[in-house]
Amino acid sequence: MVDEIRLKIGQMLMAGFPPPEVDAQARWLTGEYYVGNFVLFARNIGTVQQTCEMCGALSRLVWDQTGLAPLIAADQEGGVVCRLCEGVALLPGPMAIAAADADASVVGRNCADALAAVGINANLAPVLDVNRDPMNPIIGARAYGDTVQAVQKFGLGMLAGLRERELLAAVKHFPGHGNVKTDSHLQMPCNEAAEEELRAVDFAPFQAAFSQGADALMTGHVCLRNYDPEFPATLSHKIMTDLLRGVMGFQGIAITDCMEMGAISTAYGIGEGAVLAVEAGCDILCFSHTYEAVAQAAQALYAAVESGRITPERIDRSYERILRVKRKYNLLRPSAPSVEKARSILYDPVRREQHRRISRRSITLLSDTGGLARLKQAKHPAFFAPASLALTGNEDQEKPPTYFSRMAAERYGGKWTVLPLDGLDDAADGALRAQEYDVAVLGLYNARFRPGQQRILRILEEQSRPLVVVMLGAPYDAALICRADAVIAAYEYTPMSVCAVLDALEENNFEGTPPVRMM
């Protein structure tokens, strides 16, 4: 096989690597497999200077090896899915933006400025999934809402802001990950909706984004039972070519969600999954973690070309699409981000205040029968909540967690307890029941999937003392609450959103409106 084909296949690969520096894994990937694109996670991102230097080195490394600069991508959706969290880069999340009825294009512009300043040139966002199932374990508050109208209003606003600043945006998770009950990081989720419903709801925001000029998408590893019962979308020619290219007219690049996720790797294996994805019509295959996965995929693609299973012309079609996008976004030469410029953007007080105001306006009071007044009068409040955690299977826990209970006690006084994410053992259960307080404030974080958190809620509900519940994830947890004197929706669990909740409590002013129907 000629090196030209290997170079082109390298442009069809996107890889992650472990540390906050260009390490041996990144160098091996570019040297051995000509990997032309990289994806960053929180584990890779530290200080502003480090991130600028790492992205500059990565850009130069790939350009030296391949003659093209890499896509350097990150999932910068907002809320809990922010890889870069410094200053302006900490964005209000999708459901918070919708609850605040904010101008999402402002967030998109600020996001693009922040990412580009440190050398990240592609955002794997916005999320255009319509979160129709309250028991969806992986989308939830990452969606802008549960209607096509809400997702298009805010998701396309975010897209417009990113595009205005000429940062590549990959809308996701095509053809829609909102109507499922399974996490594709673990196994294959299935959408049972009829084809007419899929077209009217799940596909609609993506079609609107393509009409607006979206140049990239990220696939979802979702089986649409009544559209292609055999293959998940990422591996489906009927979806990734016949529907996407033929019916919907998309001309940009199709990037897969991580091919190491259980929905693909467990059912098909890395190598066969890679070949099937290319046969289906995907352009760039993403591998978030291991060198071994990229190696298996590259070798499987080489073998498929050598055997004639994949033709050189098929490789050329993806390569030409990738080249066209890289040319459009000025990725023919390596970049060298300026640390000084990056700091001036990331710590710009005007942009930071824009995000703070959106977060503040998103906080929603769902009910209050005197709980807020009792909290203001409390001499001995007690605050309970788990620490924040990684939301997706591709996340890592390098960034420090947020502690709602501690931040609340520092503001209001009183006791604070960091609860285990999944509940208490019997000894801790007894200690919780015996605590002395006059008002309890409980932070829930997607408790509908965590029986242990539900148990804590029941313990506090059984007490005769006032209870205020703050939902730090998607607001669907409201359906679990049997007795509370006030219920508040924050939509996300970040330092910015916690401060917004505490400000709203202190001022007794709640401006948000729920952007979804709750059970």
Short note summarizing the structure:
The chain has helices at 3-11, 24-33, 48-66, 94-99, 104-118, 148-164, 195-202, 204-212, 237-247, 262-268, 270-280, 291-307, 312-328, 339-346, 349-362, 371-377, 404-412, 426-434, 451-462, 495-507, and strands at 13-15, 37-40, 71-74, 76-78, 81-82, 122-123, 168-174, 190-191, 216-219, 223-224, 253-255, 285-287, 364-368, 381-386, 415-419, 439-444, 467-471, 486-489. It is an alpha/beta fold and 519 residues long. The chain has two domains: 3-344, Glycoside hydrolase, family 3, N-terminal domain (TIM Barrel, Alpha-Beta Barrel); 363-507, Rossmann fold (3-Layer(aba) Sandwich).
Description:
Helix 1 crosses helix 13, helix 5 (104-118) runs antiparallel to helix 14 (339-346) and helix 17 packs parallel to helix 20 (495-507). The longest helix is centred in the N-terminal third of the chain and has 19 residues, at 48-66. The protein has 20 helices and 18 strands. The protein is an alpha/beta fold. The protein has two domains: 3-344, Glycoside hydrolase, family 3, N-terminal domain (TIM Barrel, Alpha-Beta Barrel), CATH 3.20.20; 363-507, Glycoside hydrolase family 3 C-terminal domain (Rossmann fold), CATH 3.40.50. The chain starts with a helix and ends in a 12-residue tail after the last helix. The strands form four sheets. The protein has an eight-stranded parallel β-sheet with strand order 11-9-7-6-3-2-1-12. The protein is globular, with a radius of gyration of 23 Å.
Specify the helix fraction band.
40-55%
Bulk shape: globular
* CATH architecture label name of the largest domain: Alpha-Beta Barrel
What is the average per-residue confidence, as pLDDT, rounded to a whole number? 93
Taking the sheet with the most strands, its summary is:
8 strands, parallel
Cα-atom Rg, whole angstroms?
23 Å
Write down how many β-strands occur, each being a DSSP E stretch of 2 or more residues. Answer: 18
CATH superfamily of the largest domain: Glycoside hydrolase, family 3, N-terminal domain
Ends apart, CA distance between termini:
57 Å
Would you tell me the structural class of the helices and strands? Answer: alpha/beta
What is the C-level CATH assignment of the largest domain? Alpha Beta
Q: Which strand order do you get reading across the main beta sheet? A: 11-9-7-6-3-2-1-12
Count every helix, treating DSSP H or I runs of 4 or more residues as helices.
Answer: 20
